[in-house]
Write a structure and sequence with these properties.
Largest interface: A-B, 195 and 131 residues
Number of strands of chain B: 0
Oligomer: heterodimer
Helix content of chain A: under 10%
Low-confidence stretches of chain A: 24-32, 703-711
């Protein structure tokens, strides 16, 4: 693609020039400094010695489930250990070690161990556990561990769920949940005042059960899918930091491995064709991403200018063996046996910021991103849902060149008012065989910041955008896709937007801020698909700090999102119309009170409801869906008692109520839908009371040792 | 050292009424600077707010890169020469640099101090970034005189970022969200607030590279690709929060029908007639389109053409 080549060459030239400038700047002499030989820092309380804080306690939860435990790990009623701690050891010679451990009794446990020598090196080990609890209301007749799901003995297959007479007696609960565990080892070596060498090794595991589904053409089934993913990554590089320039060179590699197998599952329905008694789902293929990157900046001698640059080249590869085309007897083995996929990723960027006048600042960026899919398209004779041959199709490959330019200027008209203008252009060229060959999105804006009195300032910004697109290549549309639809990321679009941000220090003790935004997207050329969207946001925060011992806040927000779309009914027929309006509120009030030298109280109360109204109309007859809604009420109270200088007691109480009503899930049991054997997942709900008592003990009070710095 | 301007003013206001010990006279070669560096400053500014600095990386005597390392300018490395301030016995800053969003020193001048050391590493993209364009002071987010920098702890970092980015604060409270409210993920997991050559200050070059840093299972390349997955995850997902499951920008099937209107089922209108109690529809309920097209992020199955295997 000629355009891609010229962009790459231009970017390489510019990047080369930037690195050359960096080299020139390396020769710059540092500025002279005052004589500090008499500065002994004898009064400086540098840290030395050992200190630690240990937390031991228990949390008691009632009413906890997957809703509350989604990311906390507190997913059932019971008592949990609440253990954590931190500590630091630092020697006079600058050797140090510290640790920080949190939530050791929960699946969300995390910790950091760090050791090093001041100004010489740092080594770090980290662990982070992140639970994800999806649903605990799922029930399924499928049995089996690993990647082979079978149906119980005596299962009665039928053409629809109503006829599956053994369904109810076969259902068993299945928890959909997984854990993401990340362990890392990283380090920095400060080779000199200018050079740093850094590196990081990381392993991330994601293990558990996810939700998936599959069909046998006319019927479908929701399934629990075991997952066992491991991603190993390496980053290593060096950083040079000069007085007028910097350069960072790095290599990063990431190896994703799916340690599971394709999911085999029995067909709970009467097969449409003989032999279609089981299905097999693909799993994410193992892949490798490796990248080389350079980035840095050069402070130019003109107009206080800084040039920033970045370049990276990467390769994404995937060559997992294909699974058999189908479970049907006699199905062919695919040729070739794997994809041998390769995608080249490139990124080049130059930025320039300058201040030609004291009141004028200018900045701009030119960025290129390329995704070049080198994978050979394959002709695949495929089988539809393990049911019947679908013919032969060529696998599409997607490449693109994305050039981005942005710039802005701000000018201070007076000490109390400044104005700015800016804009950006995004030009994307797509490889042949895609629906459009190019899109161009141009956006411009203006803003004014006014501060009529010192404690009050607000910024008003407004702008518009225009996206143009090439004509559709209808030949590139998927089979049976309607050529009248302009897929919205590729559709011409008019966009207007505005925002208002303000802050007012009403008094030294009372502050107020406001943020509001409006935007409207109009897909003016689209007759089908997305026609328009509106977004409105308004939020405000008050903070009140009447004294050092008391602070309070009140935060509230509102957001409204609106979508309008059309759908195809038939030739010469008016389209169906669907609209969706989401409204979201939040209000949060709380504070902190140091009641005495012994007692500290914190309080937070949050309400966050969501409402969604969906409406669809055919032939002008509007039909409204039931309103979907969620509501979160959360109250948190913390009381800390400082018993002695070293001993602290902390009492925590939390009450959370979450309710939701989603018509896509409400009342959908495994047998509700004739052609979907569902998992019966119900909307999230909880009513949790959590109380915890923790003892915190400080060992080895912080050493405030007065010592002299090395000279 | 940096400190919030308000804090510094408060410190000055709270300075002890008794006269501080008389500092030694400045030597001629140090004209403009204090006579004894930090020892001079600590003679007056010795309260807990200042002492917090000595728990931080900025006050490591063994680190030659830091202001308290060998030959470092100590407090005046950041606050500028304090000779006149000392000579006046305290009071007005006399040209010294004050830090914080409400400080008398302009943000540009404050930031020049920080960037003097940090532009070379953590903030090398700062100059052309939107934060620099909006005149944001480093000390609007960072507090250097405290033991714990709010930007280095997940909950306090989120609080600091969303103090300005209030739409994101609202979004993080939506039913479907990343584990941020739970304190398990910071804004900097995805964003590089000091500047970036990626979109929206992302730490990686593209949206897709950023997302697949953790969600590597969707990285592909797949035998059968879904184009928006390869191009931009935010075509379908709103990473800051959503009322829909899986951070989707809109409820399926309507989200899918924004792009897909083929002959047959992709174009059918979905109405309340498809709800339980009427004629329950697999096109509408449970996973909607993904009830069949479950491999929506791409499929490596030879028979995954319609992303159903």
């Amino acid at each position: 693609m000629p355009a891609r080549s010229s962009i790459r060459y231009a970017a390489l030239l510019l990047g080369g020039a930037a690195i050359l400038l960096t080299g020139v700047s390396m020769a710059d002499a540092p500025a002279p400094a005052p004589d500090t030989s008499g500065w002994k820092c004898a009064q400086c309380p540098f840290l030395q010695g050992y200190e630690s804080q240990t937390e031991v306690g228990a949390l008691s939860a009632s009413g906890a489930n997957a809703t509350y435990g989604r990311y906390t790990g507190i997913d059932r009623s019971g008592v949990y250990a609440d253990v954590g701690g931190s500590g630091e050891l630092r020697s006079a010679s600058g050797q140090y070690a510290n640790y920080d451990l949190e939530h050791l009794g929960l699946a969300s446990r995390e910790g950091t161990l760090e050791a090093g020598s001041e100004g010489r090196y740092t080594l770090r080990i980290t662990y982070d556990g992140q639970p994800t609890r999806l649903y605990d209301t799922a029930v399924t007749p499928f049995q089996g561990n690993g990647s082979n799901l079978s149906l119980p003995t005596g299962w009665v297959a039928a053409g629809g769920t109503a006829g599956m007479s053994a369904l109810n007696s076969s259902l068993a609960p299945d928890e959909l949940a997984f854990d993401r565990r990340t362990i890392g080892l990283s380090g920095d070596y400060y080779a000199s005042s200018a050079w740093t060498v850094f590196g990081e090794l990381q392993r991330q595991e994601k293990i558990g059960t996810d939700l998936t589904s599959a069909s046998f053409l006319t019927e479908a089934v929701q399934l629990p899918q075991p997952i066992d993913y491991v991603t190993d990554s390496v980053t290593a590089g060096t950083l040079w930091a000069g007085s007028r320039a910097s350069l960072r060179l790095s290599y990063s590699g990431s190896w994703f491995e799916d340690q599971g197998s394709p999911l085999m599952f029995a067909n709970p329905y009467l097969p449409i064709v003989p032999g279609s008694t089981e299905g097999r789902l693909g799993v994410p293929p193992s892949n490798t991403l490796q990248q080389l990157a350079a980035a840095g900046n050069v402070r130019l001698p003109w107009f206080a200018s800084t040039l920033t640059y970045a370049a990276s080249l990467g390769t994404l590869r995937q060559n997992d063996a294909f699974m058999p085309i189908s479970t049907l007897p006699g199905a062919m083995t695919p040729t070739p046996a794997s994809l041998d996929g390769e995608v080249l990723l490139s990124h080049y960027a130059l930025g320039l910021a300058s201040r030609p006048l004291s009141k004028l600042s200018l900045r701009g960026n030119a960025i290129y991103d390329g995704r070049d899919d080198k994978t050979n398209p394959l002709a695949i004779a495929y089988i539809v849902t393990d049911t019947f041959p679908g013919g032969t199709a060529i696998t599409p490959r997607y490449s693109e060149d994305h050039a981005h330019l942005d710039g802005g200027a701000d000018y201070a008209l007076a000490p109390w008012v400044s104005v700015g203008v800016g804009g950006q252009i995004d030009d994307i060229h797509y490889s042949p065989g895609q629906i459009v060959s190019w899109t161009q999105d141009i956006e411009s804006w203006g803003r004014a910041t006014v501060s009529p009195i010192a404690p009050l300032s607000f910024t008003l910004k407004a702008g518009n955008g225009l996206r143009k697109a090439s004509s559709f290549d209808t030949a590139a549309l998927p089979v049976a896709e309607n050529p009248q639809i302009f897929q919205y990321e590729y559709a011409p679009r008019d966009r207007v937007f505005s925002s208002l941000n303000g802050a007012w220090s009403i008094s030294p003790k009372l502050n107020w801020s406001l943020a509001g935004a409006l935007s409207k997207n109009d897909y003016r050329s689209s007759t089908l698909g997305l026609i328009g969207t509106h977004e409105q946001h308004l939020s405000s925060t008050f903070t009140w700090t009447p004294s050092d011992s008391l602070s309070a806040y009140l935060d509230a927000g509102y957001e409204r999102l609106f979508n309008l779309q059309n759908g195809y009914v038939g030739p010469n027929a008016a389209p169906w119309v669907a609209s969706d309006t989401e409204r979201f509120w939040n209000a949060d009030v709380g504070g902190r009170w140091l009641a005495s030298s012994h007692w500290t109280v914190t309080l937070d109360y949050l309400i966050a409801p969501t409402y969604e109204d969906t409406d669809s109309a055919v032939g002008g007859l509007s039909q409204a869906f039931p309103q979907s809604w969620t509501r979160l009420d959360s109250a948190r109270l913390g009381v800390t008692y400082q018993w002695t200088a070293a001993l602290q007691l902390h009492l925590r109480y939390e009450r959370e109520t979450y309710n939701s009503n989603d018509w896509a899930l409400m009342g959908v049991t495994p047998a509700t839908i004739p052609d979907l054997l569902a998992l019966g997942i119900q909307p999230y709900r909880d009513n949790v009371n959590l109380i915890g008592l923790t003892v915190r003990y400080q060992l080895g009070a912080p050493a405030a040792v007065v010592s002299s710095p090395a000279k | 050292m940096m400190c919030a301007g308000a804090q510094l003013h408060a410190l000055e206001a709270a300075a002890p009424a008794a006269a501080p010990p008389a500092p030694p006279a400045p030597s001629p070669e140090n004209a403009g600077y204090s006579p004894q560096g930090a020892d001079t400053c600590l003679g007056c500014h010795s309260d807990a707010n200042v002492a917090g600095l000595f728990h931080t990386k900025h006050a490591r005597p063994g680190d030659p890169r830091g202001p308290f390392g060998a030959g470092g300018l100590q407090c005046e490395a950041c606050h500028g020469p304090g000779g006149a301030h000392v000579k006046a016995g305290g009071g007005p800053l006399a040209g010294m640099i004050d830090f914080g969003p409400k400080a008398a020193t302009p943000a540009l001048k404050q930031n020049a101090v920080c960037l003097g050391c940090h532009q070379a590493n953590t903030a090398h993209d700062w100059a052309a970034s939107p934060h620099a364009g909006a005149n944001v002071a480093c000390a609007s987010c960072h507090t250097v005189h405290t033991r714990t920098n709010p930007m280095q702890s997940t909950p306090t970092q989120i609080e600091a970022c969303t103090a300005c980015h209030q739409a994101q604060r609202t979004a993080l409270l939506k039913p479907s969200h990343h584990p941020m409210r739970e304190g398990k993920m910071a804004c900097t997991a995805c964003h590089s607030p000091h500047g970036s050559t990626g979109p929206a200050l992302l730490s990686k070059s593209t949206v897709t590279e950023t997302c697949t840093g953790c969600h590597a299972e969707y990285r592909g390349p797949f035998l059968w690709e879904h184009q928006p997955v390869a191009e931009n995850c935010t075509t379908c997902h709103d990473p800051h929060g959503s009322a829909q499951t899986s951070l989707l920008k809109q409820r399926p099937p309507f989200l899918c029908q924004s792009c897909h209107e083929g002959a047959g089922h992709p174009s059918i209108v979905n109405t309340p007639n498809g709800l339980p109690g009427r004629m329950p529809s697999a096109y509408l309920l449970a996973g909607s389109c993904t009830n069949c097209h479950s491999q929506i992020h791409g499929s490596n199955s030879p028979s995954g053409r319609a992303l159903m295997r």
